[in-house]
Amino acid sequence: MRPLIAPSVLASDFANLQSEVEMLNNSQADWLHIDIMDGRFVPNISFGFPVLEAIKRYAQKPLDVHLMIVEPEQYIERFREAGADTISVHVEASTHLHRTLQQIKATGAKAGIAVNPHTSVHLLEDVIADADLVCLMSVNPGFGGQKFIENTYRKIEALKNLIIQRNSQALIEIDGGVNQHNAPLLLEKGADVLVAGSFVFSADDPAQTIADLKSSK
Ligand code: DX5
Ligand code: ZN
């Protein structure tokens, strides 16, 4: 099956956000990946509701919102109102993850769990059946343009087994350092969604790069 491609808007030109979103509308991108950083969960601050609302005004594809924030449960409804179609919270930032997943679903959004490189996917055993998406971080979150962590391949296999065992419908998304070199093996191991920021936006032809990722095998 062809992967879903979710370019990360974090790597786009914010001074030309409308044209960047229109480029994604006209490309083979499936979702737009939106990175929200609070300067507390991660050592960086990206953008918040006004920018998300601006993206939503032009986007013709689902917005996949990745919350790298502490206490994400405080802001779920506002992210939904601002335009999120999928909302992922970090397992490391969620004291009551099961409750937060239900809270996300109650807004009508799809519920995702993001997992840092050091966190074992086995921690998701009792909650995987409630997730629509698992975002496996293949870099330490906080910045675009980092090097892919090779241990991710092993984690995809473990997560895939867990999903099958628990009869979960969750998609496996890989986030960080994705490019045309690692995409084929990520897909072979079981990834369903590839996020790509710098690889797409630093290319001479971002739309063609998205198309290339989409046809990787
Ligand atoms: C990292 C973000 C990623 C990042 C991906 O904290 O969650 O989504 O934007 O960017 P690249 O593809 O450049 O690693
Ligand atoms: Zn992300």
UniProtKB/TrEMBL annotation:
Q: How is the cofactor bound?
A: Binds 1 divalent metal cation per subunit.
Q: Which reaction does it catalyse?
A: D-ribulose 5-phosphate = D-xylulose 5-phosphate
Instruction: List the pathway annotation.
Output: Carbohydrate degradation
> What is the active site of this protein?
35, 175
**Cofactor(s) of this protein:** Co(2+); Fe(2+); Zn(2+); a divalent metal cation
Q: Name one GO cellular component term.
A: cytoplasm
Under the heading Pfam families, the entry gives: Ribul_P_3_epim
Q: Does the keyword rRNA processing apply?
A: no
Alphabetized, the UniProt keywords read: Carbohydrate metabolism, Cobalt, Isomerase, Manganese, Metal-binding, Zinc
Task: Give the enzyme's main class according to its UniProt record, as a single word.
Answer: isomerase
GO BP terms, alphabetized: pentose catabolic process; pentose-phosphate shunt
**Which residues does the annotation say bind a divalent metal cation?**
33, 35, 66, 175
Supply one GO molecular-function term: metal ion binding
Which EC number(s) does the record attach to this protein?
A: 5.1.3.1
Q: Where does this protein hold substrate?
A: 8, 66, 142-145, 175-177, 197-198
User: What role does this protein play?
Assistant: Catalyzes the reversible epimerization of D-ribulose 5-phosphate to D-xylulose 5-phosphate.
Which NCBIfam families does this one have? Answer: PRK05581.1-4 (NF004076), rpe (TIGR01163)
Similarity-based family: Belongs to the ribulose-phosphate 3-epimerase family.
- The protein's name: Ribulose-phosphate 3-epimerase
Which organism does this sequence originate in? Pontibacter mucosus
Q: What is this organism's lineage?
A: Bacteria, Pseudomonadati, Bacteroidota, Cytophagia, Cytophagales
